[in-house]
Design brief:
With 69 residues, the chain is of the alpha+beta class. The chain contains two helices and three strands, in the order E-H-E-E-H. It has one domain (2-62): Alpha-Beta Plaits. Keywords: Metal-binding.
């Protein structure tokens, strides 16, 4: 298992948490997805055999949340 952290632009609404966590959690290979609202970070634990950190980043950005780091 691998853990990746993504820094997002500041999150403005709690519903953003459910949207991001829900989408990432449904992806094959993702074991856990956690949004840290106050720090605007996403932490994901996943199997690199099934999904890559880049794919997770692209998914977050497609939801409308730019990843800045």
């Amino acid at each position: 298992m691998t853990t990746a952290k993504f820094q997002l632009e500041p999150l403005t609404c709690p519903s953003c948490i459910k949207k991001i966590e829900g989408k990432l959690s449904k992806m094959d290979g993702v074991v856990e997805a956690k949004v840290l609202f106050n720090s605007s970070k996403v932490k994901a634990t996943f199997s690199e055999d099934q999904v890559t950190a880049d794919e997770l980043k692209i998914t977050i950005e497609k939801l409308g949340y730019p990843v800045i780091a």
